[in-house]
TrEMBL record:
Annotated ranges, domain F-box: 11-43
Residue ranges of domain KIB1-4 beta-propeller in the record: 73-379
SUPFAM superfamilies: F-box domain
Lineage: Eukaryota, Viridiplantae, Streptophyta, Embryophyta, Tracheophyta
InterPro entries named among the record's database cross-references: F-box-like_dom_sf, F-box_dom, KIB1-4_b-propeller
Name of the protein described by the UniProt record: Uncharacterized protein
Biased composition range(s): Acidic residues: 248-263
Pfam family, one: F-box
Transmembrane segments: none
Length: 412
């Protein structure tokens, strides 16, 4: 007698399907809903009883990721991620990816303890923007033309999109003087600014702002040429760091509006030449980290300073955090504390390559700063740290290369 056939997947009881949905990330939930009308309806009902927004992910360069919060778990790979890529960073729901055979981009840090990147060894690179929630990938040939064949010491430090559209302006910072800031518009063109000492950037209102390791703030005007290619017609230093008696200021020429009509977007250069610009100190036992990633928060531009303690044989922890807002009219950084630090109902997420202010939901707490590298959050209201558990698998990579990724709001 023939054995009975197994029940059809489409006949799963709604409560069983609900249990499955609770174990999936957003990208898999979207696929589940697309199977049939019955599943779409059941999943929609289930989501109405759950949080409509998922807590942010911590993405590891090899494509694995952790969810956070009380139900945080580890996943071996982001669904739909292209093969043979390394995650350089993220901007909201988009990942910046590097396709290369460079071992320092393709291998976890635990496997590279005895190796150092070499300036005399070059690799080919192709760069992508990838949205794992909508399975959309956009190539960046404009960035390939600049950093497509570089040595192992070359690093892209941050990739930032001005809006949710991948066809809009993309800003890139590197650790090389010859291409400090790169602006790209996919399919249109690119613009390169060298020799400015800027290591981090943020879009704020109608400008791009960059900060130097001395905490100078530079404002860049943004425009397009007749072909739609991005250009920076002028820039100016709007905040200058205090100088010691007798100290010379090598950047004083930036205090006035500087025209860039010298063809800065078209000049040729070798990105392997020039002095590297430091972006972050290695954190020692009592060493201060004088500059952390910055974030623009709707009504103000913030700078975050953090000191990290790294005692031998013990986990690192945050020792001190300071917040400053940019007073561009006065030309100075102003300390902010308590409820003046972050807008009401919002929290701040930081890594070296990512910064985002968002309204709180799920396990978030308003007024807190979430760092990707320590099991603590900093409460700006009380100026103190409190524990916050992060999945241990994030230690598979150097803290400098971890990034946050925000899933989009689920629409039912």
């Amino acid at each position: 007698m023939a054995s009975p056939s197994p029940p059809a997947w489409a006949d799963l009881l709604p409560e069983v399907l609900g249990e499955i949905v609770a174990c999936l990330c957003d990208a898999d939930v979207a696929r589940l809903r697309a199977v049939c009308r019955a599943w779409h309806s059941t999943v929609a009902c289930e989501l109405q009883d759950q949080e409509q927004e998922e807590m942010p992910w911590i993405v590891i360069p090899n494509g694995s990721f952790c969810t956070i919060g009380d139900t945080g778990v580890f996943f071996n790979r982001i669904p739909g991620l292209p093969r043979n890529v390394t995650c350089l960073g993220a901007t909201d729901s988009w990942l910046a990816l590097d396709c290369t055979d460079d071992v320092f981009r393709r291998t976890n840090i635990v496997d590279l303890k005895c190796l150092e990147p070499r300036s005399d060894v070059k690799h080919e690179h192709n760069y992508l923007l990838h949205n794992p929630f909508y399975e959309k990938t956009v190539s960046l040939p404009e960035l390939d033309s600049i950093a497509g064949h570089v040595n192992e010491t070359f690093e892209i430090r941050k990739v930032l999109m001005r809006s949710a559209s991948p066809n809009d302006l993309v800003a890139v910072t590197t650790n090389n003087d010859n291409c400090t800031i790169i602006l790209c518009r996919p399919g249109k063109g690119r613009w390169v600014l060298p020799y400015l000492g800027v290591f981090d950037v943020a879009f704020f209102k109608d400008k791009l702002y960059g900060i130097t390791r001395h905490e100078d703030l530079v404002a860049f005007d943004l425009a397009d040429d007749d072909d739609g290619s991005p250009i920076i017609p002028k820039f100016k230093r709007v905040i200058r760091h205090p100088l010691a008696d007798g100290e010379e200021d090598p950047w004083s020429w930036m205090d006035d509006d500087n025209d860039t009509d010298d063809g800065g977007g078209d000049h040729s250069f070798n990105p392997d030449d020039g002095q590297l610009v430091p972006s972050d100190h290695e954190v020692g036992v009592d060493e201060e980290v004088p500059y952390e990633p910055k974030d623009c928060i709707r009504t103000k531009l913030l700078m975050v300073r953090r000191q990290v303690q790294s005692p031998p044989f013990h986990p690192s922890y945050t020792r001190k955090v300071e917040l400053f807002k940019a007073d561009i009219d006065a030309g100075r950084w102003v300390s902010v504390t308590g409820r003046d630090a972050l807008p009401e109902g919002e929290a701040l997420f930081l890594s070296r390559s990512f910064s985002k202010s968002t309204r709180v939901y799920g396990d978030m707490t308003e007024g807190c700063i979430y760092f990707v590298d320590v099991d603590q959050v900093f409460d700006t209201r009380s100026s103190s740290c409190r524990p916050f558990r992060l999945p241990w698998q994030r230690i598979r990579a150097d803290d400098n290369w971890l990034t946050w990724l925000f899933p989009p709001k689920l629409v039912v």
